[in-house]
Design a protein that fits this description.
Layout lengths: L1 E6 L19 E2 L2 E2 H11 L4 E6 L3 H8 L2 E2 L2 E7 L6 H7 L8 E5 L2 E3 L1 H7 L5 E6 L7 E6 L2 E7 L8 E9 L19 H11 L3 E4 L3 E3 L3 H12 L5 E2 L2 E2 L4 E3 L2 E3 L4 E2 L4 E3 L2 E3 L4 E2 L4 E3 L2 E3 L4 E2 L4 E3 L2 E2 L4 E2 L4 E3 L2 E2 L4 E2 L4 E2 L10 E4 L2 E4 L8 E2 L4 E2 L4 E2 L4 E2 L10 E2 L4
Parallel strand pairs: 1-4, 1-7, 4-6, 9-13, 15-18, 16-19, 17-20, 18-21, 19-22, 20-23, 21-24, 22-25, 23-26, 24-27, 25-28, 26-29, 27-30, 30-35, 31-36, 32-37, 35-38, 37-39
Antiparallel strand pairs: 2-3, 5-6, 7-12, 8-14, 9-12, 10-11, 33-34
Length: about 400
């Protein structure tokens, strides 16, 4: 079976982290987000991966190449994004026989994909308390009778997680009318499948759609929670490493450092001395964490420096960021309400009591800068020494 992985979108809700990096290539543990999707598909038994690429497509091609984990990889270009059916249609010429479709920016329970791919048309579903913001399946006697987008009166609590197996005939059903949302919807293709086939449902117990920065934190919490301790890098005898911690070859942990897992320290990273790193934290390749720094439950992307006497909690720092000495990130509101973050111009609740900041690639803070919860620094932004930042910039 072929698996079509949708990885063409820009990920505007994830900005500024996606200013030059497509959302499916954002780091989750030791690999890009879309690599977790590809791994789950290969483990489930697909024999070809077809990536639909668009925004910053070279990044996807460079990572996956012509073969990935022994499976051939093809690419289909979607230069403009007009919905999921439009994306799959971009891959139409590659499709032969029954095929799967997966979102490249979602995490799926691998065992569920194995069941999904076990035979015949099928959809992945996930039970939620409030299905009204999602596409919801009407399930009768174990098969799908219909799908309704964002219903006021949901027919079930089983939502669409963007994991499908289509019959071979669906290759010719991808030309669907544009919806009221201005997109060609894959659910219109599903409606035709429902009319001509028995469409199985497969429960996906663990699933996460990663569309916004706090969901990138959640994705890392999930995947770092599965790591097995593995110390291959250089760790000082005077460092204290506890719990599930991975220190890759080429990484260094200096004297006086305390690391409490789950933590992943990637190749080329340098930590300390006297730093405190605690879970769930990802330090990507070639990062530098200086003397007396504390990093808690954060993603620190490639090439970023957090020099001495700084605190970063529940935050996402982009690539090649430099925080001036003494930079302090606040991650808790005084009223204990969930922290809000700007997403596409609107202030949106993260649903998290603790959330720090999102910092775009190449941003720099002056020494002794303090950043309020929910602040976003855009790509290349700067702050003055001693500045208290309360608004996005």
């Amino acid at each position: 079976m072929q698996a079509v992985i949708l990885a063409a979108g820009e990920g505007t809700r994830m900005r500024p982290l996606t200013a030059s990096l497509p959302k499916p290539m954002l780091p989750v543990a030791d690999r890009p987000l879309s690599a977790h999707t590809a791994d789950a598909a290969v483990t489930a038994g697909v024999d070809e991966l077809v990536f639909v690429v668009g925004y910053e497509r070279a990044t996807v091609r460079d990572y996956f190449g012509e073969r990935y984990r022994g499976v051939p990889v093809s690419y289909a270009a979607q230069d403009e994004q007009f919905g999921t059916a439009h994306a799959v249609k971009a891959a139409q010429e590659h499709l032969e026989g029954e095929f799967a479709v997966l979102n490249g920016d979602d995490l799926y329970d691998p065992a569920a994909l194995t069941e999904l791919f076990s035979g015949g048309p099928a959809v992945g579903t996930h039970a939620v308390e409030d299905p009204t913001p999602y596409g919801v399946f009407d399930v009768q006697d174990g098969t799908v009778a219909g799908v309704v987008e964002k219903p006021d009166d949901p027919p079930s609590n089983r939502i669409n997680v963007g994991a499908y197996v289509f019959p071979a005939e669906a290759r010719d059903w991808l030309d669907v009318p544009m919806s009221e949302r201005g997109e060609h919807e894959i659910t219109d293709v599903l409606q035709r499948v429902i009319g001509e086939f028995d469409l199985r449902t497969v429960g996906v117990e663990r699933w996460l759609g990663v569309g916004r920065p706090w969901e990138l934190l959640e994705a890392n919490e999930w995947k770092l929670g599965d790591i097995v301790p593995d110390i291959r890098g250089e760790v000082s005898d005077d460092a204290d490493v506890r719990g599930p911690v991975v220190v890759e070859d080429g990484a260094a942990v200096e004297p006086g450092v305390v690391v409490e897992g789950p933590v992943l320290i990637r190749s080329g990273a340098d930590v300390g001395p006297n730093a405190y790193i605690r879970g769930s934290t990802l330090l990507c390749k070639d990062t530098h964490i200086g003397n007396g720094v504390e990093i808690k439950n954060s993603v620190v992307m490639r090439g970023t420096n957090v020099p001495h006497l700084s605190y970063v909690g529940d935050s996402v720092l982009g690539r090649d960021v430099n925080l001036g000495a003494g930079t302090q990130v606040a991650n808790l509101r005084h009223d204990d309400d969930p922290v809000k973050l700007t997403v596409k111009g609107d202030r949106v609740s993260t649903g998290r009591r603790k959330f720090g900041v999102v910092v775009g690639d190449g941003a720099k803070t002056g020494i002794n800068t303090s950043l309020n919860p929910g602040v976003t620094l855009s790509t290349g932004a700067t702050t003055e020494p001693g500045e208290h930042v309360t608004r996005d910039r």
